[in-house]
From TrEMBL:
The keyword Aminoacyl-tRNA synthetase does not apply. Residues 3-44 form the Methyl-coenzyme M reductase alpha subunit N-terminal domain. It comes from uncultured Candidatus Methanoperedens sp. GO terms for molecular function: coenzyme-B sulfoethylthiotransferase activity. Its EC number is 2.8.4.1. The lineage of its organism: Archaea, Methanobacteriati, Methanobacteriota, Stenosarchaea group, Methanomicrobia. Keywords: Methanogenesis, Transferase. InterPro entries: Me_CoM_Rdtase_asu_N, Me_CoM_Rdtase_asu_N_sub1, Me_CoM_Rdtase_Fd-like_fold. This is coenzyme-B sulfoethylthiotransferase. Pathway: One-carbon metabolism; methyl-coenzyme M reduction; methane from methyl-coenzyme M: step 1/1. It holds the Pfam family MCR_alpha_N. MCR is a hexamer of two alpha, two beta, and two gamma chains, forming a dimer of heterotrimers.
Amino acid sequence: KCGAAITKKRGLQAYDPKLHLAGIPMGQRQLTPYTISGTDIVCDG
């Protein structure tokens, strides 16, 4: 109810998650391994 009231007040259009992160929907990104500079440590990000 609160979200609908804010939408009416501000005149916002429907939320489109593809507008964020250069078109990649949140929560569906693949993890990419990165090596930390100067070490042999690999982490996902």
